[in-house]
Automatic annotation (TrEMBL):
Native organism taxonomy: Bacteria, Bacillati, Actinomycetota, Actinomycetes, Propionibacteriales
Protein name (Swiss-Prot/TrEMBL): Cation diffusion facilitator CzcD-associated flavoprotein CzcO
UniProt cross-references to InterPro entries, sorted A to Z: FAD-bind_Monooxygenase_sf, FAD/NAD-bd_sf
Gene3D superfamilies xref list: FAD/NAD(P)-binding domain
Xref: SUPFAM superfamilies: FAD/NAD(P)-binding domain
Pfam families: Pyr_redox_3
Length: 493
């Protein structure tokens, strides 16, 4: 593959799909999506583990421009969400501009031609604008456990589920107790002979108000004007109430924690087990988990909770940091993703030849979570400091895409060849975000989560409401950018 394009989008998940659709709607026809996999969906394509589902209501976890009245449950499951994402992409004609099976190996800015040169698994390609939409839930994080590589049985990460292994009657160790484990543990607990759960840190769990959507409600959604919007508004208000608790821990988050404590007491009657499952930090420090069967599954006789990290693997035995051991046939890693050290940052080189990762030096930052100084005509979707503990990634992605679309179309109409956010604008934005994070639940005492980067800074979380995110992030302000116009470079009208 070779050629020159106006916009190249890396990734065909929800953010890449949104970017391609909105750019084309705005009149930018020469858009190409590069996707290393063989279909759409991003993280919803990759994660096929048992019980995989969303923890944001389906009415909110969807494109605003493509509502779906046929969700089977309040919270959609993985196959249904994947079908929805894939359907939207194909309905909007993205098949014609998507190149599947092509991996981006590197991208470098060429100042002379004001273009990005991409090295891919199928040759070189150049583009005027680059949209990195690979997302933070892309590359699984594999723990560096001594002896893990020599384990004689099967080992896999939850995001690369091995469906060829029959777990019936097996002894299984699960390492990690985050959002994925909370969903797959209750499923496999019913199959396995013994389940050893290695829990380095306990998590707060709240009940999930989930149920099948009745056919009558689906009919009303399709046929009664504004009903679906009204329902979405109610669900949005409920989620934003949770969001308000993150930002005002006293008394809101403390009150919500009492609900989690009561739920834990009701689900786990054994005091010793309940003590293992009780976190020592304020609810909201880590991602809040929702489940109606996770805690309950841990009380079953074939489950042992090891309230410890894993020190090493010796032969077929998993050895905890507290000395406890478990001899198992398979190990499943529920250890999350490279969220703040996303691999795409190692691939993109800016105007000074350094990679995005080298610029960040362990603390990712971007103006409006989207533009990075020194990386002209490039944008990151679902970038730093845009993570919410309660909202929808669709809302974040669409807000960023609105800003990107305005930036690209303005550059085309004004004859700008280069847009580079000013270091001053970026620094001011980052400083404002970091100041606002102080005093939130994300920054509480004893709070150690994937929100915190290698330098001890929260580079993940958004400190304000979803409404504020949409308002601020959607806006393109040319005054915050260093703009270059070169009459010798041909500019699209």
């Amino acid at each position: 593959m070779s050629g020159n394009h106006e916009v190249v989008v890396i990734g065909a998940g929800i953010s890449g799909i949104a970017a391609a659709i909105k750019l084309r709607e705005a009149g930018v026809e020469d858009v190409v999506i590069l996707e290393k996999a063989d279909t759409y969906g991003g993280t919803w394509r990759a994660n096929t583990y048992p019980g995989c589902a969303c923890d944001v209501p389906s009415n909110l976890y969807s494109f605003s421009f493509a509502p779906n009245s046929d969700w089977s449950r309040v919270y959609g499951n993985q196959p249904e969400i994947l079908d929805y994402i894939d359907g939207v992409a194909r309905d909007r004609g993205l098949e014609d501009i998507t190149r599947f099976g092509i991996e981006v190996l590197g991208a470098a800015w060429d100042a002379e031609t004001a273009t990005w040169l991409l090295e891919t698994s199928d040759g070189e390609i150049t583009t005027r604008f680059l949209v990195a939409a690979a997302g933070p839930w892309n590359e699984p994080k594999i723990p560096d456990v001594p002896g893990l590589a020599d384990f004689p049985g099967e080992v896999w990460h939850s995001a690369r589920w091995n469906h060829d292994v029959d777990l019936d009657g097996k002894r299984v160790a699960v390492i990690g107790t985050g959002a994925s484990a909370v969903q797959f543990v209750p499923q496999i607990q019913q199959q396995v002979d013994a389940l050893h759960l290695f829990q380095r840190t306990a998590h707060w769990v709240l009940p999930k108000v989930d149920h099948p959507v009745p056919d009558a409600e689906k009919w009303v959604k399709r046929n009664v004007p504004f009903f679906e919007k009204a329902l979405g508004a109610v669900e949005y208000a409920a989620m934003e109430t949770v969001g308000l608790a993150f930002h005002r821990p006293k008394p809101l988050m403390h009150g919500l924690q009492k609900v989690a404590q009561a739920y834990l007491r009701a689900a786990v009657r054994d005091q010793e087990l309940r003590a293992k499952l009780t976190p020592d930090y304020l609810l909201g420090c880590k991602r809040i988990l929702f489940s109606n069967n996770y805690l309950q599954s841990l009380t079953k006789p074939n489950v042992e909770v090891h309230a410890t990290g894993v020190e090493r693997v010796e032969g077929a035995s998993v050895v905890g940091s507290d000395g406890s051991t478990a001899e198992v046939d398979a190990i499943i890693l529920g250890t999350g993703f490279h969220i703040l050290d996303m691999p795409v940052a190692d691939l993109i080189r800016g105007a000074d030849g350094r990679t995005l990762a080298e610029h960040w030096a362990g603390s990712p930052e971007a103006y409006q979570g989207t533009s990075v100084a020194g990386f002209p005509n490039a944008f990151v979707v679902l970038g730093p400091s845009l993570g919410t503990g309660h909202g929808s990634a669709f809302a974040v992605a669409e807000s960023q895409v609105a800003m990107i679309t305005e930036a690209v179309t303005t550059a085309r109409s004004q004859g700008w060849t280069q847009l580079d956010v000013s270091p001053q604008a970026q620094a001011a934005y980052v400083e404002e975000v970091q100041a606002a994070l102080a005093g939130t639940a994300y920054s509480g005492a004893s709070c150690h989560s994937y929100f915190i980067d290698a330098n001890g800074r929260n580079s993940f979380s958004w400190p304000w409401s979803t409404g504020e995110l949409v308002r601020r992030i959607s806006r393109f302000d040319p005054a915050d950018f260093e703009i270059t116009m070169d009459e010798t470079v041909e500019v699209s009208a």
